[in-house]
Amino acid sequence: MDSTNNYSKTRSKPDWFKQELPKSANFARTKQILSKYGLCTVCEEAKCPNAGTCFSENTATFLIMGPNCSRDCAFCAVKPGPQGYPDPGEGERLALSARDLGLDYVVVTSVTRDDLPDGGAKYFADTIRKIKQLLPQALVEVLIPDLQGSRQDLQTVLNAGPDVLNHNLETVKRLYPQVRPQADYQRSLEVLRLSKELRPDIPTKSGLMLGLGESGPETETALQDLLSVGCKAITMGQYLRPSKMHTEVDRYVTPEEFSEWKDRAHEIGFQAVASGPRVRSSYKAKELYQEIYKTRESL
């Protein structure tokens, strides 16, 4: 696909990013519940453009192990800095919050914790178990960091029985030194490959940002690389610059091009695809999970 067409080089956000402020009473209720249990969300910490919509629909993506990250990626709004020891009671409070919100599909992610011996794997595992103990019918998707490629730590997370294992590739290989200097393209692919080796029954999922300067062939290669390690669910969204300290937006990809990428991803073998300017890693996560299994049943 030729990504040199159908895009704008303007530095201002196009019209398709405009939205009304949330008016639902659920927005305030969601904020109140999160505050009651002292929880962070990636919706707020990463400045997700869908935060208002999701909060108004009684949902959120939980961010565990604190609001500060041990890495400093050039695309991410989450602040780097001292982390401190994770709160051992966080998993239980998160489960209670999910109960009060009425969630039957719970998405949990974290900051990267390279400062911890296991990268935070046991906290992911504890959170998964706490949710499933309190909400036995709930499905749990975890969006994990790379755990520095540790097989043992990944096994710890998988042993807790998440229903989806998500790890974002984020961008194409060439841009890693610029966008994710503390990460490694092959290591991220290996996390997904190893997850399928250890637990082939658990679907894997990944995400890509567009608009960072990648070419069409590079995006195609990234998709093929994900398929080669057994990843069959993908989210594709527009990179938005969190501040002037972060990498500039190279271009705003049009909704039409995102639609073309969705068609292409399905064509080459992905079972579940969400692709659009406002799409993020946890965007319509439950619907993508259902799409995975709907596709499996039709095979």
Strand content: 5-15%
The helix content, as a percent range, equals: 25-40%
Q: Mean pLDDT, as a whole number?
A: 89
CATH homologous superfamily caption = Aldolase class I
Placed side by side, the strands forming the largest sheet appear as 2-3-4-5-6-7-8-10
Low-confidence regions: none
The CATH class designation is Alpha Beta
Order of helices and strands: EHEHHEHEHEHEHHEHEEHEH
- Total separate domains: 1
How far apart the termini lie comes to 27 Å
Number of helices: 11
Instruction: Compute the CA-based radius of gyration.
Output: 18 Å
Q: Find the count of extended strands (DSSP E, 2+ residues).
A: 10
Largest sheet features: 8 strands, mixed
Which secondary-structure class do the elements indicate? alpha/beta
Give the overall silhouette.
globular
- Overall CATH architecture: Alpha-Beta Barrel
Oligomer: single chain
What features would you describe in this structure?
The chain has one domain (23-298): Aldolase class I (TIM Barrel). With 299 residues, it is α/β, with parallel strands linked by helices. An eight-stranded mixed beta sheet has the order 2-3-4-5-6-7-8-10, with helices on both faces. Strand 4 (105-110), helix 5 (121-134) and strand 5 form a beta-alpha-beta unit. It is built from eleven helices and ten strands.
